[in-house]
């Protein structure tokens, strides 16, 4: 993609972002190891961070050190289903705590290709059930828990919302989907390869989806809760916020998903940021465009918490 297609504030930083050779299994293993070892726990005033295992699933808990608002959020990290960890989002999760006095539980789900579908979504569902069962001890009301995620984590968040809905338990208060990875069929479109989207391109997308789904990618037999965009009936789901950059690989699939949610009667706020690439707010947070993006998200969360969601833009 030509540099002039990228937002001026993000252009230089995006150009310097390294290419990720995730096609090579040895390199992928090395990146996972480095990511796990290099991420340092942040010490954020007002936030207490702890970890524990729940039925074999590692979770990371971010709690306010002062008064709690009795609100919770289940966070799911990104990484194309093949890299990443809960620790890498210490900043984002701590921001939720300090902005909204909420308790955040982040899931260190199992990664592909070693652990294919349904490992990741099973781990997220385990964490959700634990959060529901232990809400009171965490000073959270179980009916006031958001589900949120970035990129692959955004796709898992959408899938988790489906699964929770189908199980008939307490639904999420709302779903917060940052540039979510929703549709495996995008990865099969070779016409997108030449665009070379910044940060996450379609060649990498195919690596991620193939690691997760194997030969099922793009075919008719993709399982339930694997690719949220394939779901036919979206009615009855909680309100949604979807944020996406206009030059993100997932731009089209996210817009279509937002349209399908709205058509099914689900309130959905879609924020499209012009000329923004994948993951821009997390990678380049100290820019006006990223701060404006997060402000739109925060306004949505605040409206949900104050029962003003009926007045949100759709």
What are the secondary-structure elements, in order, as H or E?
A: HHEEEHEHEHEHEHEHH
What general form does the structure show? globular
Strand order of the largest sheet: 1-2-4-3-5-6-7-8
Q: Termini distance?
A: 30 Å
Number of separate strands? 8
Name the structural class.
alpha/beta
What helical percentage do the residues reach?
25-40%
User: Major sheet, described briefly?
Assistant: 8 strands, mixed
Summarize the structure.
The protein contains nine helices and eight strands. With 314 residues, the chain is of the alpha/beta class. The model has no long low-confidence stretch (mean pLDDT 92).
Can you walk through the features of this model?
The chain is an alpha/beta fold. 35% of the residues lie in helices and 16% in strands. It has nine helices and eight strands. The protein has helices spanning 11-16, 25-38, 90-100, 119-133, 152-167, 202-213, 251-263, 280-283, 288-305, and strands at residues 47-54, 57-64, 72-76, 103-108, 145-150, 175-178, 240-245, 268-273. An eight-stranded mixed β-sheet has the order 1-2-4-3-5-6-7-8, with helices on both faces. Helix 6 (202-213) links the parallel strand 6 and strand 7. Helix 4 (119-133) packs across helix 5 (152-167). It is globular, with a radius of gyration of 18 Å. It starts with 10 loop residues before the first helix and ends in a 9-residue tail after the last helix. The relative contact order is 0.13. The mean pLDDT is 92.
């Amino acid at each position: 993609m030509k540099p002039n297609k990228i937002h001026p504030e993000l252009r230089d930083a995006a150009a310097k972002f390294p290419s990720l050779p995730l096609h090579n299994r040895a390199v992928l293993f090395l990146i996972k190891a480095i990511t796990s070892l290099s991420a340092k726990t942040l010490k954020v005033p007002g936030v207490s961070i702890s970890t524990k295992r729940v039925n074999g699933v590692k979770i990371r808990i971010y709690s306010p050190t002062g008064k709690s608002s009795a609100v919770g959020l289940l966070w799911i990290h990104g990484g194309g289903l093949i890299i990443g960890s809960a620790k890498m989002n210490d900043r984002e999760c701590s921001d939720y705590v300090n902005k909204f006095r909420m308790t955040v539980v982040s899931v260190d789900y199992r990664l592909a290709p070693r652990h294919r579908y349904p490992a990741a979504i099973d781990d997220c569902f385990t964490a959700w059930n634990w959060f529901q069962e232990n809400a009171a001890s965490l000073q959270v009301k179980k009916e006031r828990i958001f589900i949120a995620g970035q990129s692959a984590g955004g796709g898992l968040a959408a899938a988790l919302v489906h699964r929770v809905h189908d199980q008939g338990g307490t639904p999420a208060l709302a779903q917060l989907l940052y540039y979510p990875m929703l549709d495996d069929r995008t990865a099969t479109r070779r016409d997108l390869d030449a665009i070379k989207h910044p940060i996450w391109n379609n060649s990498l997308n195919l690596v991620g989806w193939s690691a997760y789904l194997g030969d099922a990618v793009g075919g008719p037999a993709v399982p339930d809760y694997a690719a949220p965009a394939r779901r036919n009936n979206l009615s009855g789901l909680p309100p949604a916020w979807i944020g996406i950059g206009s030059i993100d690989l997932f731009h089209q699939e996210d817009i279509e998903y937002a349209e399908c949610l709205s058509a099914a009667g689900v309130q959905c706020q879609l924020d499209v940021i012009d000329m923004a690439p994948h993951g821009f707010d997390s990678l380049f947070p100290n820019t006006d465009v990223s701060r404006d993006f997060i402000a739109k998200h925060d306004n949505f969360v605040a409206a949900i918490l104050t029962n003003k969601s009926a007045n949100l833009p759709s």
